[in-house]
Each structure stands twice: as structure tokens, then as C-alpha cells.
Amino acid sequence: MKIVVLEPLGISKEKEMQASEKIRNEGHEIVFCETKTDDLAELEKRGKDADVIIIANMPFRKNIIEKCKKLKFLSVAFAGVDHVDVDYCKERGIMVCNAAGYSKNSVPELVFGLAISVLRNIPQCDYQARNGGTKAGLVGTELFGKKFGVIGTGAIGSRVCEIAQAFGCEVLAYSRTKKEALINKGIRYVSLNTLLKECDIISLHVPYNKSTDKLINAEKIAMMKKTAVIINTARGKVVDSEALAFALNEGRINGAGIDVLEMEPPFPKDHVLLKARHTVFTPHAAFASEEALFTRAQIVFDNIELWEKGIPQNVCS
């Protein structure tokens, strides 16, 4: 069986060997592509003989998949698969599995890094400290005692709930499925509108699909407190960027911590949110800790091993 890692996984060669050891010991050929490309001819060359392909967050649409004539299994080194033409994979009988759970620590940690950066004006304070300034006009607010809203309580959202409680927050949650374990910890599930109206910090943890497209729009933003802070480490398209930028610039909400926009970095310099007041940005980095990147590599190779044994995990199609 030929396995092609179509783009770098962000780990060292040593870690690649460690994560793929079981598969290699079974005699399978593994090709690690050292560069990322969007050139269709090059992608066809890389994938045309592959039985299994591994990708991270590169777009993998029909125009590429149809060139991979032998492809039977796609292991996605990412939690979301909205960048993959899953429907076409189904038509072709190609199984798609993701790397669910690999960033259940890295993303929540950045959520609170962003939240505290906004609440305590850390970027502005850093600038003032380096340029002879003081804290004048930059006195912030605490997390402790705030109402913290979590939209989506999958593995990542659940961890955010737990950390928010550790900070002394009252946690409200909205999700399609309620988790008894969270309820037993004192987390209160409410409607989306109730969460938006009551919470001081609102953190998004839903996948992108038709039902979540611009879930946070002008109508929903208008429900939020003037002091509210929104954190998005989920998907850029879950938020209406124009509506959020308008609300921030008009002072209708307090601030935002943003890791994702509608496109992958580098973000266009003229993007409306990059010019909005009281925002802190990271370039889609929430998932990218050394530990998480190695964990996802382990998961994608485990996905292949279990699929080959007929007991696939993390199945998306």
C-alpha cells in the first residue's frame, strides 16, 4: 500500500518516523512531501498512485481527488473537513477520517490567551511598556466572576468550559447535544439567544457547515452586552465579519480575540476585522502547539491502521 503525505505535518523528520513507525513496520510505502503546493499538475503527480493520502488543511476538492485514481482512504490531519469535498469522496467510495481531539488542549489554552489579552489590554500595554508609557487608559477587567459562554461543547468546547470554571467564571453553554458530565460540574445549558444576552465572554467551538454559516450575524451581535468579548478559534465563516467589525467600531461590543478568518493566512491587510478596534489576532495558530501537531500525526497514522483492519475511527464519510 502506498501512503502519500501530501503536505508537511509541521513536525520534525524524527517525529514523522515515530508517528508512522507501526505502518512502516507493516511494509507499507510512505512518501512524505516536504513542501506545500496548490499546483494541480504537481498534486496529480504526487497523488496519482496513492492508495492512501494524508492532508492537513490544504483544500482537497474534486479537481484534485479525481486525479488520484487509486485513492481509497483520506486521513485528514485536522478536526474540520470543510476544506475537503466529502460528497465527492462518498461518490468515489473513498473513506474520510479526521484527527478529532488532537487540539483539545492547544485550542482552549489559546482561547484564554486571547480572552485575557483583550480583557487586560496586553498588546497595548506591551507597546506602552516598550515606549516609555504607562497603564493610563489601559486598566482592564478580570475573568473571575464573569459569565463565560461556550457555543459548541465537543472535546474542545468542553475543555474550555472546565478551564473557565477554574478561572472562577459562571459557565453557560449552547450545543446541539448536552453533556451530562458538564451539567454535573455545574455548567448550565441555555438557548443561543440567552447565552448571547447574558455572557461577558463568548467563545465559539462549532464546525463550519450550512447551519453555522454566519451563525454570529448582526442580529445575534445586537443581543450581546456592550461589555461583551467574542473569541473565535473555530472557523472564520461562522461569524459575519462585516457585522462584527461594525459592532466593534461602534462600541456596541467591547472586543474580540480572533484566530480565524474566512481565508487561511496570510490574511489580506485590508480585511475589515484587521482594522476593527480592540481586537487581538493570531494567524490560525490555536491548534499549532508542538504537542498537538505530534498528536495529530499519531492520530492520522492510527486512522490508517484501524481502517486497514476494518475498524475505522473518526469517520467523516
How many domains in all? 2
Multimeric state: single chain
Strand content: 5-15%
* Main beta-sheet strand count, sense and barrel state: 7 strands, parallel
Q: CATH superfamily membership of the largest domain, which one?
A: NAD(P)-binding Rossmann-like Domain
| Widest beta sheet: strand line-up | 8-7-6-9-10-11-12
Q: Give the proportion of residues in helices.
A: 25-40%
Q: What is the CATH topology assignment of the largest domain? A: Rossmann fold
Rounded to the nearest angstrom, the distance between the terminal CA atoms is 21 Å
Q: Which value, in Å, is the CA radius of gyration? A: 21 Å
Summed up, the helix count is 13
**Strand/helix succession:** EHHEHEHEHEHHEHEHEHEHEHEEH
- Give the helix/strand class: alpha/beta
Query: Averaged pLDDT, please?
Result: 97
Which CATH class of the largest domain is shown?
Alpha Beta
CATH architecture assignment of the largest domain = 3-Layer(aba) Sandwich
Q: How many E strands?
A: 12
Approximate shape:
globular
Low-confidence stretches: none
Keywords:
317 residues; alpha/beta; Rossmann fold; 7-stranded parallel beta sheet; 5-stranded parallel beta sheet; 13 helices; 12 strands; 35% helix
List the helices and strands and how they pair.
Blueprint (H helix, E strand, L loop, with lengths): L1 E4 L7 H7 L1 H5 L3 E4 L7 H8 L4 E4 L6 H4 L7 E4 L9 H7 L2 E3 L8 H14 L2 H9 L16 E5 L3 H12 L3 E5 L5 H5 L3 E2 L2 H7 L2 E4 L13 H4 L7 E4 L8 H9 L5 E4 L20 E3 L8 H19 L9
Parallel strand pairs: 1-2, 1-3, 3-4, 4-5, 6-7, 6-9, 7-8, 9-10, 10-11, 11-12
Helix pairs in contact: 1-13, 6-8
